[in-house]
Amino acid sequence: MAEMMRKSLFPGVAILLVAVGLVYAFWPRPVPVSVITAERGPMLVTIEDEGETRVKEAYTISAPLSGRVARFDGHVGDSVAAGLSVVATIRPSNPSFHDVRTHSGLEAAVRAAEAERDLARAHVASAAAANEFAQAEFKRGRNLAERGTISLSGLDRARMEARTKKAELNEARAALRVREFQLQTAQAALLDPASANRAATSELCCFEVRAPVSGTILRVFQESEAVVQAGAPLVEIGDPSDLEIVVDMLSTDAVLVSPGDDVLIEGWGGERSLNGRVRRIEPFGFTKISALGIDEQRVNVIIDFADPPALWRKLGHGYRVVSRIVIWRGKDILQAPLSALFRTQDAWTLFKIVDGRARLSKIQVGRMNSRSAEIRSGLGAGDRIVLHPSDRIEDGVRIIARETR
After folding, report:
1. Going by C-beta distance under 8 Å and a sequence separation of 6 or more, which residues neighbour residue 151?
2. Is residue 399 within a helix (H) or strand (E), and if so which, with residue range?
3. What is the CATH code for 60-92+205-238?
4. Predicted local distance difference test score (pLDDT) of residue 322
């Protein structure tokens, strides 16, 4: 009998154990979550963007005339004195090479100029002979007039003829000089570049470009010897201890910024943030293509350093910085991390922890920055909230909290 009872009781116990195991396996367990406590404290709303430092007054020295600029002997970082330091030396450049057709035309022009010079010499010889004869006639006429042999009118005609021939001789000589100069011009046009270079080196002087202001060489645009055109940039000069920051900011952000706003300068390589202040928002915007190929309308915002130069003296011209412009500041603000907030229909919500369970709570949000949001209602200081809620978190679910600071 006992044996039969044991056999009948065994299946029931097994079924009971399986049922208990299934209930235990599928019983909802607490979900581990990261938890943070809502607190009140100071809050900043900033606009963050990259910028770069630049010298406030930079001077770009350009070539005043076209020519061959000599190799620059200085280096970036050298000091220069106004009116004394030579930053560029310009010499005449060589003429260009001639093709066969051009060279033949220039040779023909030289021969034509030589022929015109010879013709002018012949005119000078003819005018000289005529002048010599007219002067002799005038001299004889004057002697005859003294003896009363010829009339005064005949003497006047001889005098006029002598003056006319002398003027014609001077005219012929002037024409000869013109032809000689024209021949020199034609011969100069025919000169080959090597001969012209030797002539320029030996005869013509160079032109020295001096620094207009005292400062430091920031950039050298043309270091090696080269032929430059008038207006080509050569050297940039400025004072690297007089820096400002320029941030090309989206125009939709720039309208929120005002002159005098405080700025936190970060990402410049130092151990601490620097302080700055907005000096000017430029009134003219420009289009810039972003890294994603999108046209963006941007505006330059100019920022001055508010800290002593000793704190940022390692910065130079064109250094990268990250600027956070403060557009709003609060002292005692209830805040919640943005990672705890999410949208439910048209409202902001979060999970508040009540009696070990996550409770979905609607909140009213005010200002936001990159890390937290101002909570105006729906949450109190000291309330514990869930960070980074996953899809496992639902209203009323039991949780295991991991405190996060």
Report:
1. 145
2. strand 399-403
3. 2.40.50.100
4. 95
- Whole-angstrom distance, CA of residue 301 vs CA of residue 258: 10
Hey, is 136 helix, strand or coil?
Answer: helix
Nearest to 349, CA basis, from 358, 336, 360, 337: 360
Is it true that domain 47-55+240-330 has CATH number 1.10.3300.10? no
The tokens describing 292, both together, are 């994603």
| Average pLDDT rounded to a whole number, residues 44-63 | 93
CB 285 within 8 A of CB 240: no
Question: In whole angstroms, what is the distance from residue 130 CA to residue 172 CA?
Answer: 12
CB-CB contact of 374 with 367 (8 Å): yes
Summarize the confidence of residues 156-180 as an average pLDDT: 86
Q: Is the pLDDT confidence value at 316 over 60?
A: yes
pLDDT, residue 5, reads 54
Compute the distance between CA of residue 380 and CA of residue 362 in angstroms, rounded to an integer: 12
Distance of CA 145 to the CA centre of its chain: 89
Q: Which residues of 42-78 are buried (b: 16+ CB within 10 A; e: fewer)?
A: ebbbbbbbebebbbeebeebebeeebbbbebebeeee
Q: Return the CATH fold of 31-42+332-403.
A: 2.40.420
Average pLDDT on 320-332 reads 94
If you write DSSP's letter for every residue of 297-353 in order, what string do you get?
Answer: EEEEEEEEE-S-GGGSTT--TT-EEEEEEEEEEEEEEEEEEGGG-EEETTEEEEEEE
Q: What is the pLDDT of residues 2-36, one digit of tens each?
A: 555 555 555 655 666 556 555 545 555 788 888 99
